[in-house]
Amino acid sequence: MSRKYYTLVEANRLLPEVRKQVDELQEMKRQFERKYTELCELKPGQPDHDDLTFTLECELEFLQVQFKSGLAGFELKGIELKDVDMGLVDFPALMDGGEVLLCWKKGEERVEHYHGLFDGFAGRKKISEL
Question: Which of 12, 46, 72, 121 is the most buried (most CB within 10 A)?
Fold first, then answer.
């Protein structure tokens, strides 16, 4: 399967959907962390906790499946979710004959940065610097 490359216009056009997906994944992660903490705080072997333990374990498994499905949605589009907590997303692109990653972070109005394939977030540059 060939790699999908995005233009700046295409990446920005996808942002409403990407924002929604990032928000959903962040919420799932928060729910998972809350439920996992709750499960860890239960005292093992107490019969009155068996039903709650089972329920929490099922909910955690379901959240994992949902989360993986959400990640797969990015992968199917060829978009890279680099950091769920930061809401950091990269769109593969071609600039000046080379591969780069258009970079967007939650809270930014539009895609305005890029970096090399191995530069990461720290190597971000404004697209106007091209």
Answer: 12
Position 55 pLDDT exceeds 70: yes
Report d(CA 91, CA 85) in Å as an integer: 18
State the DSSP code for 84. Answer: T
3-state SS assignment for residue 7: coil
- Which tokens is 100 given? 């780069």
Question: What residue has token string 């071609």?
Answer: 94
Rounded Cα gap, residues 61 and 65, in angstroms? 6
Contacts of 85 (CB under 8 A, 6+ apart): 26, 29
Q: CB-based burial of residue 103 (10 Å sphere; 0-12 exposed, 13-18 middle, 19+ buried)?
A: buried
Separation between Cα atoms, residue 95 and residue 82, nearest integer Å: 21
